[in-house]
Design brief:
- The chain has 226 residues and is an alpha+beta fold.
- It has a domain of 151 residues.
- It is 26% helix and 35% strand.
- The protein is built from 5 helices and 11 strands; from the N terminus they run αβαββββββββββααα.
- Strands 1, 2, 3, 4, 5, 6, 7, 8, 9, 10 and 11 form an 11-stranded mixed β-sheet that branches.
């Protein structure tokens, strides 16, 4: 009886932990250069997935607008790291390195941020073989930064859907170690340069006032009349 109650307690604890982690999937996105509404964003979601992918593992974290856990998928983090558990440094200089990008689907900064530094830690979840605890610290250009922790569930269908939808971006991400550019990262809006001043107008030719020229011209006309 006690053994049965003990196992029941363990199962209940596992369910509560899994549910709590799902609700607690959270990222903080810091963009010092962004408009006020997108400068510091706290995001929460239930859409966090992973899948085995050609000897590596892909992580897909999708988030709605701030203050919501459902609705339009406005922000996405996609990462590829080695298989298994461990802490992986972002490294775009070699083919096997961890790499990631962040997508914003809304706002003035709509576009993609290529992650240039940071680390991703993947750990097991107790009593949940099909889940991964993922801790991220990601850095991009212009002091862009993402921090957070999520629990990702095994979902090959969702990951492959994303791969089809964002195929050019994923291929560019995988080619970073070759020096090929990914799509342009989101940067602070540049100030439009002042228009260049028009070139100075060329001066009009001056009429000749040389008396000798006038004398020579009269002499030439006189000869012609002869």
């Amino acid at each position: 009886m006690r053994a049965a109650m003990r196992w029941t307690g363990f199962l209940l604890l596992a369910v509560l932990l899994a549910g709590g982690c799902a609700r607690g999937n959270a990222l903080r996105v810091e963009q010092p250069f962004a408009p006020h509404s997108q400068r510091d964003m706290d995001l929460r979601s239930r859409w966090c997935w992973y899948a085995a992918l050609d000897g590596r593992q892909a992580l897909l974290l999708e988030f709605p607008l701030p203050a919501s856990i459902r609705g339009f998928k406005a922000f996405r983090v996609y990462a590829e790291v080695p298989s298994g558990f461990g802490t992986y440094e972002i490294d775009t200089t070699r083919s096997g390195g961890a790499r990631a990008f962040f997508v914003q689907e809304v706002g003035e900064l709509q576009g993609k941020v290529v992650i240039r530094g940071g680390r991703i830690r993947v750990a097991p979840v107790a009593f949940a073989a099909g889940q991964r605890a993922v801790t991220l610290t990601l850095e991009g250009d212009n002091e862009f930064r993402i921090t957070g922790r999520v629990v990702a569930g095994d979902n090959d269908l969702e990951v492959r859907r994303f791969l089809r939808e964002y195929r050019p971006d994923v291929e560019a991400l995988r080619s970073l170690h070759k020096g090929s550019p990914a799509s342009q990262p989101v940067r602070p809006p540049a100030t439009a340069p002042a228009p260049a001043p028009p070139p100075p107008a060329e001066p009009a030719p001056e009429a000749s006032t040389n008396s000798e020229d006038a004398v020579e011209s009269d002499a030439f006309l006189f000869e012609q009349e002869k």
